[in-house]
Structure formats: structure tokens, C-alpha cells
Amino acid sequence: MTECLLNCPLCKSGNILNHLLIKDHAVSNKEFTLFRCGDCELLFTNPRPKEEEIGPYYDFREYYSHGNQVQNFTQWLYKKIRKSSIRRKLELINGLTKSRSLLDYGCGTGEFLQEAKRQRWIVRGIEPSEKARTQAIKKLPSGVVETLSEVPELEAYDVVTLFHVLEHIHRLRDTINKITSHLKSNGYLVIAVPNPESPDAKHYGKDWAGYDVPRHLYHFSRQSISIFQEQFELELVRVEPLVYDSYYVSLLSEGYKNQGSGLISRYFKAFIQGYRSNQKARRLGNYSSNIFIFKKK
Ligand SMILES: [Zn+2]
């Protein structure tokens, strides 16, 4: 069963139109429609699998069991990039505030929180996926819970992070309102999302891996981000690029675009495209993925 949205999930406008048909290359091979909001420019999957029924679309076992060299190398690359991006994220939050309490919403298997704890942050993680949460709890025995409702109502944090998580949240407005209620005043909300206006998104079009339907429910343009800050009473204070994402996204996109292409040609093209995307983005700031840093008003 799917659910059909009649209004924009970000700004609630009824001015929404059918925009683009995208295939789920990673798991189901089904096609999904992206709608576009005429008011805030948000792109969103519509109709979309309901929250309680989207689980199977995250089931990559089938996908990985066909594991060949390309996928194994891609996973290796993904881990390398993750390690360097953990370092980057820590540098970023360390520079925001002297007072160090952190809530990571969608903490996955907990590597970022583990490193933050090592750097003297008081940490809490939220992770809905049982498999990932079990691993995160091994690293941080009392710090990780399944949902925000398990966090005491008055518990407030200096920094809340959502790294490549916002685009997966079904109850977008409700969740962001709850998250900001756990943010101290003048606290920071740090959000990383793929950029549908990036040069690599434009280059690959419907084969752009950042669309990742139906797991990615939303795609935020700069206009959508500006509406986002208004809707949730936040102030956008800084935007930082995630420069490795263009390479990783280009590599996946090359595979989607030319299913039969060879390993070397795929890596070569992805490297060129990833590099070009970052070069172009230098001028306009439209990197493949950006980190938006908001301050609570
Ligand atoms: Zn909208």
C-alpha cells in the first residue's frame, strides 16, 4: 500500500505538480514519481510507501549477495569516505560551541557518536533501524534509543545533527518540530542532504543516484531550505560542502546509467564527473551534498 500526498510535506501548499519519473535501481526496480511544490520547490516522492511498509525497500541483502568486484570496491570506498567525513563533521561541530551535548538523529551504527564521545561530547543517538541500533548500542551502551519519544521531554542539546537522514523521514514537520524542541535556544541544527541542483544531479538527470527513490522522500533546493528555516523558526548561519559525495554519487549514477559498463570505464567516468561537479560548484556553492547549519532563534 502506498500513501498519496495532496499537499507539500514541507510548506503544506496544495500547488504541487508531477515532475519526474525515477526508477529504484538499488532494490525493487519499480518506478516512482517525484512531485514538485510550486511554492517551496521541494521535490518529493508521491505516492510513496507508507512508513510501516517501506522496510523492504531498505533490504539490500539481495543487492549485496550478487556482490561482485564493483560493489565490493564501492563499499570499500564508501567506508573510506565515511571515515574522513566523520573527521570533518567533528571538526565542524567542535567549532560551533564550547558547551558539548549532542543528539544525532539517525545515528546508524554509531561511529560518529563514538568519536564525538571520545572528543568529550555528551552524546545521545536515535536510530529506528533495529539492526543498526544493535551495533550502535554495543559502542554506546546507554546512549542510543529507537525513537525521540524515549528522550525525556526536558532534555535539550547544544547541537542536533541529521546527516543524510532528513530525506528519509516520513513525518517531516512533526519530527522537525520535536527535534527543535530538544534544542537549546541558540543551539545548532546541522543537516546534510543531497542537492538536486548540483552539477552531478543535472548531468545524470533521472539516473542521478541522489534521487534514491523511494528511500529518499524529499529533495531540497536552496529555495526549499530557505522555506525550511522560516517554517521551523531557524536561522541558516552557514553552508558547508561535502566534497567526496560527488564522487560516490557519480559512481553509483554511472552504474545506473550504463548497466553493462565495465569496471574501469565506470570508475574513470565517475572520477571525471565527480571532479567536474566540485569544480563547477566552487563558483555557485551547489555541491553534490551540502551541510546546512541552522541556529535556533
Ligand atoms: Zn512546498
Chain-wise SSE layout:
Elements (H helix, E strand, L loop, with lengths): L1 E2 L12 E8 L7 E7 L5 E3 L2 E2 L11 H5 L3 H26 L6 E5 L5 H8 L3 E5 L3 H10 L4 E2 L11 E7 L8 H10 L1 E12 L4 H6 L13 E2 L2 H10 L2 E8 L3 H13 L5 H22 L4 E8 L1
Parallel strand pairs: 6-7, 6-9, 7-8, 9-10
Antiparallel strand pairs: 1-5, 2-3, 3-4, 4-11, 10-13, 12-13
Bound molecules: zinc ion.
Structure characterization notes:
By secondary structure, the protein is of the alpha/beta class. The chain has a domain at 68-96 and 156-296: Rossmann fold. Helix content is 37%, strand content 24%. The chain has nine helices and 13 strands. The chain has helices at residues 61-65, 69-94, 111-118, 130-139, 172-181, 199-204, 222-231, 245-257, 263-284, and strands at residues 2-3, 16-23, 31-37, 43-45, 48-49, 101-105, 122-126, 144-145, 157-163, 183-194, 218-219, 234-241, 289-296. It has a seven-stranded mixed β-sheet with strand order 8-7-6-9-10-13-12, sandwiched between helices. A four-stranded antiparallel β-sheet has the order 2-3-4-11, with no helix packed on it. Helix 2 runs parallel beside helix 3, helix 2 packs antiparallel against helix 8 (245-257) and helix 8 packs across helix 9 (263-284). The protein is globular and about 50 Å long. The termini are far apart. The structure holds zinc ion. Zinc ion is lined by residues 8, 10-11, 13, 37, 39-40, 42.
